[in-house]
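Researcher: Good morning. I'm working through a list of sequences from a screen, and I'd like to move beyond sequence-only analysis. For each chain I'm collecting a predicted structure so we can compare shapes side by side. This is the next one on the list. No need for commentary yet; just the structure.
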Amino acid sequence: MAFPTDEQVMEVLKSVVDPEIHIDIVNLGLIYGIEKNEDAGQINVRMTLTSPGCPYGPEIQRQTHMVVAALPEVKGVQIEITFSPPWDPRTMATDEAKDILGIY
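Model: Good morning. Structure tokens for this chain:
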């Protein structure tokens, strides 16, 4: 099997849903970047949370790690949480997520 593409990684990340907002982390715009080292089988996910005090942060991080680690050929996963830039749903969320959140 081949190492996962960025698109495949993003697709599995859509299965991680913020339990408070009920929208997946990709559509919320919480994923800032994916770096891959195919030779090492490593995927690093740079992401944020809806707020620094997000009560579901550890669970979202755990689920993110779990779904990426389950991809074929992946031997290691690192999740980097950052708050720079701060999450802003008006500019980072998809139009679908904005509709659900009532942002127009």
